[in-house]
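Sharing in case it's useful to others searching the archive later.

Someone asked me privately for the predicted structure of Peptidase S9 prolyl oligopeptidase catalytic domain-containing protein, so I'm posting the question and my answer publicly. Question first, with the sequence:
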Amino acid sequence: MDRKIFFYAGFFLLGAAIVLIPCVVVIGLRSNCSDKSPQSTVTASLATTPAGTTPVTLTNTIATIWNESDYQSNSQYYQSLTNSHYFNQTDNLRLDRLSSPQLHPVDGRSLIYWRQQYHMPDLRGSTTTLHWQDLHSNKNVQLTRPIWGKHDQQFTWIDKNTILFLSNRASSDLTQIFQLTLPDDLSSLSGFIEPTQITNYSLNIDNLLVNRNATRLAFSCQVYANLDIEQTNARKQAELDSGRTIYKFDKLYIRHWDEYYTGLRNHPFIVSINRQTNGIFQLSPNPVDVLFNIDSDSPTKPFGDAKAQWSFSASGDSFAFTRQHDEDSSVAWTTNLDIYTVDLRTATQSPVCITCENIATDTDPSYSPTDENLLIYRSHSVPGYESDQYKVKVYNGSMNTKVTLLDNWDRSIQAMTWSPNGQSLYLEIGEEASNVIYYLENIYTNHSVDLLIDNGTSHNIHPDATQERTFVFTYESILEPANIYLYSWNGSIRALTNHNTALLSKVILSKEAEKFSFMGANNETVWGWHVPPANGTSQKSPLAFLIHGGPQSSWYDAWGYRWNFQSYSAQGYAVIAINFHGSDSYGQNFTDSITGEYGSLPYEDLKLGLDYALANFSHIDANRMVALGASYGGYMINWIAGQPEMSSRFKTLVCHNGLFDMRSMGYSTEELFFSEHDAGNYTVYDNPSAYEVYNPVNYVANWTVPMLIIVGAHDYRVPETQGIGAFTALQRRNITSRLLYFPTENHWVSNPQHSIAWFEEVFNWMRQHGS
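And my answer, the predicted structure tokens:
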């Protein structure tokens, strides 16, 4: 089931695949001869009126020549189009992805950010480059050369002229550390800056973090726990040369998300760095593996990263990191992450756990920029519950004390960023289906907070070092893909980037996303979204009734590269999306309410929400409705299929990687804590009835509605047999059905060509069976 972190990482992972050949297999086809609540409208934009490794310093070892004749930006392509057209998934995937803005570390007058572009117009490849922009003139410069298949990532602006970052531009095609040396006047730059490769390890570098003084850095490689980098590479080669592919397991995890656990671990390595006389940084020859001989990951898999889970202290002499307790099988049914610190001044110093008294999750350590002893982190209090409320704790190392900030809040803190003054915090919080930004003025004396951004979805805060309450960030909404914005101390907000303007000017989108509420289960207020069809509401419209996964997630006011409301509205569908009981961002009690109630409270909310939509949005045609869901949403599709009072309302159903047999799921999924917690903290063998009470497989005899089943072969969260079982049930009952099988995809569809095929197949099915 989807985790909250999936939401934050989803758009980035979608772009990670380089596409060569579509790989979609379609298998099997059989055919049979209340009171109105206040509503609000979302506006279209945000504005206010290991030992032994010797790295070699290399210079400009860029082996790939820029394929200039094959380069075209989305702006160039869409400017060449004469006519506008209704938005589709191909347009969606052609959008440039912008992320990780960082303001100039000295004067704050410019910023650098990532831009991922796709090969136009066929999407068969992508590249990620660094861009610079002046905040006053808006002059924009692409710093690194775009090369298809090459991706720059995880940069740190060291000083006004130096950037360190990761890239697979190395001649070996491995991801290594590069240095970019900037001229004093970037505004006059006419070409690209060729970066200098400063490492040449035999393994990919997956994460990078540089301390504030540029005296040390941390990076991660996937190594065997008791081997260094070169020894790991030698073992991998020996295994490849052996001609054997055999996995042997003595504990869980066997596999996780989309990867079999065969022994390789994310380990952080610490090295000292110094600048040579030529200005190029050099790494010390023997990186120290902080987790050597420990069978664990940091950053944690599958979605942890250095930005969130690692931190250097203000002096750079201490290092904090998050790790999971993977040493035995309990990792599969616990959520115990802990934070460790290590004193880098002592070569033999072992990491010290500062949170081991808490057997729930502790993660995302962040040292104060001004106080060597102060560290904040996010913490759960309920073991085994990954959707528990995150609170912010302050750890003082000099006194070994912990204080919880904002302890009376019922919202979960999703991210936190220090202000440069070391007293204030910027907080990202899910609040009523928006990811908003709060400012905590003083963590020492005054815990009052100010709401700075109250709509849409905001991420990637980077504060100005010269001015309080000034920062850059990314912002998106249902109506607007991600752009980079500047929030100024006086409350003004302005967009800084416009890479997608030409594309958006040539596509027709729905211009309205309406938030509505109604009385749901338990006579409690439940919220939902209505997006009208892009072609208007003057005539009756078919309905796409979307059910989110998680289930402790929400349909946020956010742009999507997979389940995008606009992709449905542009096909003439009205969209209704309910944030049922169990959704996050409405308080922890509302989120917790789904425990043991998978098929009850959310199901009631969906019924009542559909009633409300039909009563209040007259353009929706009750005779042409389709329900679609993924993960838990797919579970609910299978549950609805067995409840005739609800299934009879829909012409057809679409189930993507949905749960079908809860007892089987309890033994075959990798993260057992999901199933066990959500069943009421029971294992399958302790309380089988907890898994049977809302088990879709028990109601197959009631199934009658045509259904499209979609599965990914590498989905280890909801294994493919769940979808195959549902398809088998449909076929055995002689119900019109189809199985869409993606042999190379996981819980999501990440390959752009597959994503396009997904929408083609889904819309064809909806048109054929939803009318």
